[in-house]
Structure formats: C-alpha cells, structure tokens
Predict the structure.
Amino acid sequence: MAKSEIKLSNLLALALIIIAILSILLFATSIYVISANRAAIAKPTTSQPLSKISVSAQGYASAIPKNAKILFFINATGSTQSDALSKLTFETSELNSTLGRYVGGNMSRIKTEYFSVQRIINYPYNSTPQNSTSKYVAQQQIDVSINNTAYIQPLIDNATKIENLQIDQISATLSNAQVGNMTKQAIFSAVENATGQARAIIGNATIENSNITLNQYYITPFEISPKLMSVSSTPSLSGPIFFNGTSTVSEQVNVVFYYR
C-alpha cells in the first residue's frame, strides 16, 4: 500500500474521532442548558412573609356531677386512753360497715384524713363538763367517695345513727370520665373562641399555622347548702338532699396564629 493511501486513511479515522467527540460535547451541553432552563423555571418566587397574631381565650364545659364525697368526724371520749380508743374503734367499725354497702365493697374509697388521741385538758374544743369522768378524747376524720349521688340520702340516714359521729362536709364531684370529656370540650371551646377573635382582626386572611398553649385549668365544684354541712348524730337530716347543681371545667389558652 502506498504511503499516501496510509496517510489518507489515518486522517479519515482521526476526523471521525474528532466528529464523535464534538457530538458528545454538543449533546452534554444541550442537556446542561435544558436542565438549567428547567431549574430556572421551577425556582419559586420569593413568597410574602407570614404575619402572626397572639390571642388569649377561655372555654367552659359544665355537667351535673355523678360522684360525691362525704367527710365524717368521730369524737369518742373515755376515762382512760384505752377506753377512748376502744369506743373510737367500735364506732369507726360501725361506720365502715355502713359505708361498705355504698362503695361496692371497695374499701379503698374510705380514707382516714385525721387521727388523734389526747387528754381532754389539752383539747380546747371539748364540750365535756369539768366534773365528767372522761379524761381522754380519740378523734378520727374519715373521707368516703361514692360513685352515685343517689346513695347520699340513704347513706346519711344510716350513718348518722352512729353515736358521736358528725358530718363535716358533703359535696358532689365529677367522675374521672366526666373531667376528661369536659376538659376536651373546654379546650375546643377556648380554641374556637380564640379563632373567632383572630378572624375579627385578620378578616379572610389565610391561616397557615397555629401554636396553642394551655395556661390555666380549674374545676368549680358543687357543694350542698352550708346549713347541712355540720350535722351531729341525728336519726335523719331534716328533709331529703337534692343535687341539681353543676360543676364547671374551665380552660384558658393562648393561641399564636400565623397567616398571610
């Protein structure tokens, strides 16, 4: 083969290689330009910054209590410490026996809040005459929780037959289930009130987000008339007890609204 033919062949091959390289570079450049254009098109425009407003509001939920608490006080005296304790033990046993029927046998609902044994001379509220043979006083305060306010009347009628027993307080209380449900209702109401206040200021602006903080929580209890809250050992209270009041759960919230 002649030298001129070899050189021509080599030049042709070199030209093909150069063309291939240029094609690859051209294709890569096209891809880059397309990608850059797409990125430029997809790039978001600067959005309007969010504004915020903070609002405080309260919400309430009320219901008739299903449970009740009764506070009993037993005051037993005796010529000796042992005698006073013996009387207190007997009367406490009678009370527990009576209460047991109204707590479904769940004695954990009966709790001792206070217990004391002392000489009468050191007891300023003693009403025993000076010439009495009683020299010691044994005292016990008992708290009982019942899950039905309908039990209060028969319980009181039976408990007040026990000697040296008095009733310090009777109150209706919300059950745990009631408190849970009413708390949710109160929070919902509070947030709804806060939203209404915010809308009055920001109008139809779009609320993008909110941050809720609970500030206060309070239960308003319902108690019976004070005239029935201190009853000494009597066969029965003067007339039936009716619980027709309500207890209220209140929630206060602070809500920060972010809007544009």
About this structure: The radius of gyration is 42 Å. The helical segments are 3-42, 81-100, 152-159, 176-202. Residues 67-173 form a domain with the Alpha-Beta Plaits fold (CATH 3.30.70.2970).
